[in-house]
Amino acid sequence: MKNLKTIILALLVSLNFGCNPELESVEFSELNPEIFPKSESDIEALVFAAYRPLRGAWWDGFHTTSERGVMFVNDATTEILHGDFGVQEYATFHSYEPIHTGITRFYDDFYNKISSNTLSISRIEKSSVLDVLKKSAIAEIKCARALLSYELFDMYGPLVVAPLEVLENPLTETPLARLSNSEMVNFIEQDLLDAAEDLPLPSEANYGRFSQGLARMLLIRLYLHEKRWADVEEQANLIMAMGHYELDDDYVGLWDVQAPVDSKEVIWAIPADYAGTSENQWQLMVLPSNYPEASGWSTIQSTWKFYESFEANDIRKTALIAEYVGTDGVTYNKQNPGTNIQYGPIPLKIDLDAGRAGLTTVDILVYRYADVLLSKAEALANKTGVPTQESIDLVNIVRNRAGLDDILLADYADIDTFNTMILLERSHEYWCENGQYRADLIRHGKFSDYNIDNVGVASQTAPHKVLYPFSLSQITEGKGAFIQNPGYN
């Protein structure tokens, strides 16, 4: 299985996914559809082009673990992370505005990738390659398009999604409006339903590539966003019925330097490498310069509020480093934090990889089976407004793996108490993974309340801060058709 990761990374490098300034990227939107694609290798090139923006590269990877990545920014809007400069400060205090490019860049830099995928799908459909190749490739590209569309939708609300006829006439200026909420949801949903039909089963998918499991996991995220509880339950049941996924016995080990290529818990991971092809920078982001085994830039911390919300023996807080002896011989902790852990512990989450001075090859885990279990538990309770023993049992499966005792239905018998508990469990299980805890808080109407509780009177939160703003350039270029999110005008 390790060879699969090597093959994938080699293919990524061959498509110029690295950072060599002397190499020039292929712009697939400029290719002549009359002559491309014509072969299996052409089709594969289009598929890997769809994966490209989703990787972990600092400059142009949506899932980079740096300050330019979705997890970093989204988790910083919650009690999981605290920053006091740059984009992380705007996120922490909910002070983001249209002038803050660190916030608006996710849409500015990536929304056109949705259009690129639309063009790729059309070109594959019109190509003369075998139908079986077409079906497989289109499924992966639709999944990539839906994944990026969902994550941007979650951050900004409905997007501009250019129709094919507009994309095929680039010389005609056509200002486009954002979709309505229902149109946006339908667009993402249909892509994922289509992909779930034609993607490989998780047991057959190569590590790092999309599978039916991921398509259905993304449907769960979309349905949670819309509070379509019965649909969440249905997709969770379909994933469970695959008979493939299970929790890994070693929670902490999932983020080891040895990639979890054989783990039945991983639904989708982004392979990382030393070459900068798809990199993991998290240890550089969080480690202070005086850390004894490796050093970093200390750009972000966790919070003591978050750390102290864990039960004492919860293994999921293992990588929240609450005390260390620095290279200066000083012991740093909550009582003597210095400037490196004054807000909270070091949120390392991944293996230290102390043998490396910079980037690590610890893979970026984006979706895991634990999310299926907790999402189904939430759906079961909220579908009727009455928590059930089954919903409690699903939570306990996840808690038991963390070394915790069972919780009892009698203690969470009303929906408000249950939802407070499920939010806590989700934050403890997924901190510094995919940044979806922000969406969890928004879904339950707790986003602003938790921010005020976290940062106090310094909070600049407001009801409209549940969506990020678009840049002023997007509004200007939209020529009246593109409308800014409420509250930012």
Topology of this protein?
Blueprint (H helix, E strand, L loop, with lengths): L1 H13 L25 H12 L18 H7 L9 H7 L8 H26 L4 H26 L7 H4 L13 H18 L13 H14 L3 H13 L24 E5 L11 H5 L17 H4 L12 E2 L2 E2 L5 E2 L13 E2 L16 E5 H16 L4 H13 L13 H16 L6 H7 L3 H9 L16 H6 L12
Helix pairs in contact: 2-5, 2-6, 3-4, 5-6, 6-8, 6-9, 8-9, 9-10, 9-13, 10-13, 13-14, 13-15
Your description of this structure?
- By secondary structure, this protein is mostly helical.
- The chain has a domain at 2-16 and 42-275 and 469-477: Serine Threonine Protein Phosphatase 5, Tetratricopeptide repeat (Alpha Horseshoe), CATH 1.25.40.390.
- Helices cover 44% and strands 4% of the residues.
- It is built from 18 helices and six strands.
- It has a two-stranded antiparallel sheet. A two-stranded antiparallel ribbon has the order 2-5. A two-stranded antiparallel sheet has the order 3-4.
- Strand 3 and strand 4 (331-332) form a beta hairpin.
- Helix 6 runs parallel beside helix 9 (212-225).
- The radius of gyration is 22 Å and the shape is globular.
- The relative contact order is 0.13.
- Mean pLDDT is 92; it is low at 1-26.
